[in-house]
Design brief:
The complex is a heterodimer.
Chain A (H helix, E strand, L loop, with lengths): L1 H18 L3 E4 L8 H7 L5 E4 L3 E3 L2 E3 L4 E4 L4 E3 L7 E3 L5 E3 L2 E3 L10 E5 L5 E3 L2 E3 L3 E6 L5 E3 L2 E3 L13 E4 L5 E3 L2 E3 L3 E6 L5 E3 L2 E3 L3 E6 L5 E3 L2 E3 L3 E6 L5 E3 L2 E3 L9 E4 L5 E3 L2 E3 L3 E6 L5 E3 L2 E3 L3 E6 L6 E3 L2 E3 L3 E6 L15 E2 L17 E2 L3 H8 L10 H12 L9 E2 L20 H26 L2
Parallel strand pairs in A: 1-2, 2-5, 3-6, 4-7, 5-8, 6-9, 7-10, 8-11, 9-12, 10-13, 11-14, 12-15, 13-16, 14-17, 15-18, 16-19, 17-20, 18-21, 19-22, 20-23, 21-24, 22-25, 23-26, 24-27, 25-28, 26-29, 27-30, 28-31, 29-32, 30-33, 31-34, 32-35, 33-36, 34-37, 36-38
Antiparallel strand pairs in A: 39-40
Chain B lengths: L1 H4 L11 H17 L2 H19 L4 H4 L5 H28 L6 H5 L4 H34 L7 H26 L3 H27 L4 H12 L3 H14 L5 H11 L2 H29 L3
Helix pairs in contact in B: 2-7, 3-5, 3-7, 5-7, 5-8, 5-9, 5-11, 7-8, 7-13, 8-9, 8-11, 8-13, 9-10, 11-13
The chains are: A alpha/beta, B mainly alpha.
């Protein structure tokens, strides 16, 4: 009994000693010349402070440590495997430049590979890496303010994911910037994560998402990717205040929903995409207060999509509002308080209640036919197609679309979309001004010459 | 080709550039002085201005000045108006050659030189008129929109010029093959109606006779039979990019054998459409007794 008490006392003392975390400094002039030495020497709970410099090493961390850079030192990997691999829980990596991971897609070589939970990864700069930050069965992490630049020299399919989650629930990913990866955020079989304020651009899929329920996306920007967000085989996904801008290419889209249920899409800006919203077998989902503008096709909906609701959205200046593939849809376009704002609505509001008195037919006969005969789109903007539309409106012989917004809004819904797209390079603008001035100059000269006697 | 070099013409001289240019210059002066160019410039210019301005005043709603509405309206304006004006101006000018140009034909110049000169002069007049509109519109678009790619606009202007050249050339053919002024105007209107509206309706109807795949090829091939279609498709490609046509666009590119071949095919077909009516006119006029 006595022996046991002593033993306990010893343990408590040991714990107290080790809890007094030490700070180990790494730098050319310091006690430790490489981070690896410090990691080997350190006890769990210690902090390793890395001074400015370039450190050529890969790190494997198997005890709880905080590694923080002073003045953004660079950890340059050997070009094999992941640069930093974290196997112990509750580690912190802060303020490091991380470079040169391996190039093996199958081995999933990453800038930072997380295989434990409860870690904090913040303010790092990752470049020349295959995957950015890879969460491998890793829960409850905070990934914040990291900047990830993939390998631009590779085709987008040959790169890795920027923020890559596999079997990793309940993480918070906030204010990261990802560029030139394969997919900006790849999420597979990972539930209950929050993605907030990330900026994803210049890559393949901004968000690639499979079998992951209860995730929430807020204030993210998906700009200039081949596709904005592809959300597949998942339920209860919330998208709020995100911007999906300028995602263009064949079969490109702002947001794609495939086999999803009970998703909520609110106050997003879906701008200048080839297809704004694409839905196949998406069910029981709600789209509210989004602005869908300047897309080639605002919505492409397969008839397999069921019981979705669109209200209070702004549809402005889309070339085609809706392509419906299949027989018809059970989409609801209004509730008791009203429907959506359609920039091309031609009705009127005599009782001035803010709702149009005439139901708005969402797509005309030609756009309706286009859904099932894609080749007809070659006649986009053609006088022939326009004459068919006019003829059908005056003499409705053909059976047209049944998609009506019965309570269209007369004025657009005010939605505070703060995102200003970083477009419009000055050079192109001045080029057009120069060309226009030249045209006007030619015309003036020509007129002057002709009128001279 | 033989008429171009004048190889079979009675005096057997080669076409002279200088005389063509002299006639062209005179034709341009006439076209500008008879006010038609000015009137068309005014109408076209105000329409383009209105389109480019009202097409880009949605910024307050979405915080972004887009290009979509402008694109659609500009395209419609060009597709309807330019063929009509070119046909009317052309018919009027070439029909007056019955009397007014007797003096020209009496000069020691080839008939084909007279025709080519008049064609170039009229084309210059139409270029002048449309440049007023496109120039003003371009300034509005450059200063008002947030789009980042303006290369499409000059290309689109070039396509519109091609369209006016093609329909001037068609009007020349009409004027030469029709004896009387009224029948020439009637024929010109018919040609406008046929190419702008009726042709596509015919093809659309015809495509229903074929199965899916064949129908695609039928429609794609038929695009080249109508200069208005060529300009419309090429215009949308340059202003919006190939993805605007969706799956049909991908199928069209595949049918034409890739992007560069598609561009080449479009350009060659435009040249074909401008050159063929002109060459036929040369031939017809050479055999005519003036």
């Amino acid at each position: 009994m006595k022996f046991r008490c002593l033993n306990l006392l010893f343990l408590v003392l040991l714990a107290a000693l080790s809890a007094r975390a030490e700070v180990l400094t790494v730098g050319p002039e310091e006690q430790f010349k490489t981070v690896g030495e410090a990691v080997r020497f350190a006890a769990a709970g210690d902090t390793i402070r890395v001074q400015t410099g370039i450190y050529l090493e890969n790190l494997i961390i198997e005890k709880t440590l905080t590694i923080e850079g002073v003045g953004m030192p660079t950890i340059q990997g050997t070009g094999k495997g992941s640069v930093i691999e974290i196997r112990a829980a509750n580690c912190t990596i802060r303020g490091l430049g991380i470079e040169t991971s391996g190039g093996n897609l199958v081995e999933e070589d990453a800038g930072i590979l997380l295989m434990s939970s409860g870690n904090t990864i913040e303010d790092n700069r990752l470049s020349d890496i295959l995957f950015g930050i890879y969460l491998y069965q890793s829960a409850d992490n905070k990934i914040r303010r990291n900047r990830i630049n993939g390998r631009t020299e590779l085709e987008s399919g040959e790169r890795g994911g920027g923020l890559h989650l596999w079997n990793s629930p309940r993480n918070l990913l906030e204010d990261n910037i990802v560029e030139a990866a394969r997919d900006g955020m790849y999420i597979q079989s990972s539930s209950g994560n929050v993605f907030r304020g990330n900026r994803i651009y210049n890559l393949r899929y901004g968000l690639h998402f499979m079998n992951s329920d209860d995730n929430s996306f807020e204030d993210n920007v998906f700009f200039d990717n081949i596709a904005g967000a592809a959300i597949m085989y998942s339920q209860r996904i919330a998208l709020r205040r995100n911007a999906f801008v300028h995602n263009r290419g064949f079969s490109s889209f702002g947001i794609l929903f495939q086999d999803c249920r009970n998703c909520i899409t609110e106050e997003n800006l879906i701008l200048d995409n080839a297809v704004g919203i694409f839905m196949e077998a998406a069910k029981d989902s709600v789209f509210r207060r989004n602005t869908i503008a300047e897309n080639d096709v605002a919505m492409q909906i397969f008839a397999s999509s069921d019981q979705n609701t669109f209200t209070q959205n702004n549809f402005i200046n889309n070339i085609s509002p809706l392509q419906l593939i299949g027989k018809g849809s059970s989409t609801t376009w209004q509730d008791a308080s009203g429907g959506n704002y359609w920039g091309d609505y031609e009705g009127y509001d005599l009782d001035a209640d803010g709702l149009g008195d005439v139901p708005h037919r969402i797509h005309n006969i030609f756009e309706y036919l286009e859904g099932n005969f894609p080749r007809l789109r070659i006649y986009l903007n053609s006088p022939a197609a326009q004459s068919i539309v006019v003829a059908e409106r005056s003499f409705p012989i053909l059976k047209g679309s049944n998609e009506f917004d019965r309570l269209p809004l007369m004025s657009p819904v005010k939605i505070g979309t703060g995102f200003v797209p970083p477009m419009g390079s000055g050079g192109a603008k001045w080029m057009l001004i120069a060309v226009s001035a030249a045209m006007l100059g030619f015309a003036a000269l020509s007129f002057k010459r002709g009128l001279k006697r | 080709m033989s008429s171009l070099t004048g190889g079979h013409s009675p005096n057997g001289i080669i076409m002279e550039i200088s005389s063509i240019l002299t006639i062209a210059r005179q034709e341009l002066t006439v076209a500008i002085r008879n006010k038609w160019t000015g009137i068309f410039a005014f109408v076209f210019g105000s329409l383009v201005l209105a389109i480019s301005y009202f097409g880009s005043v949605t910024a307050a709603e979405i915080g972004f000045q887009g290009f979509n509405r402008t694109t659609a309206s500009l395209l419609s304006l060009v597709l309807y108006l330019i063929p009509l004006v070119a046909l009317m101006m052309g018919t009027q000018s070439f029909m007056s050659s019955e009397g007014g140009d007797d003096m020209l034909f009496a000069q020691p110049v080839l008939r084909s030189e007279v025709l080519l000169g008049k064609l170039l002069g009229l084309f210059a007049a139409l270029v002048t008129a449309t440049f007023v509109g496109f120039g003003l519109g371009g300034l509005v678009i450059a200063t008002q929109t947030d789009a980042n790619d303006f290369v499409g606009y000059p290309i689109f202007v070039g396509l519109s010029l091609f369209l006016s050249l093609i329909f001037l050339s068609l009007s020349m053919l009409v004027a030469i093959s029709c004896g009387r002024r009224t029948s020439a105007y009637g024929a010109a209107l018919l040609i406008w109606f046929f190419f702008v509206i009726f042709y596509d309706l015919l093809v659309l109807g015809g495509s229903l006779l074929f199965k899916e795949r064949t129908a695609n090829y039928f429609i794609f091939a038929s695009l080249f039979g109508n200069p208005v279609d060529i300009v419309r498709v090429a215009g949308l490609l340059s202003l919006k990019g190939e993805e605007v046509f969706g799956a049909a666009g991908a199928a069209l590119l595949k049918f034409l054998g890739g992007e560069w071949r598609a561009i080449a095919a479009l350009i060659f077909s435009l040249i074909f459409w401008a050159a063929t009516p002109t060459l036929i006119s040369f031939r017809l006029l050479r055999k005519q007794d003036i």
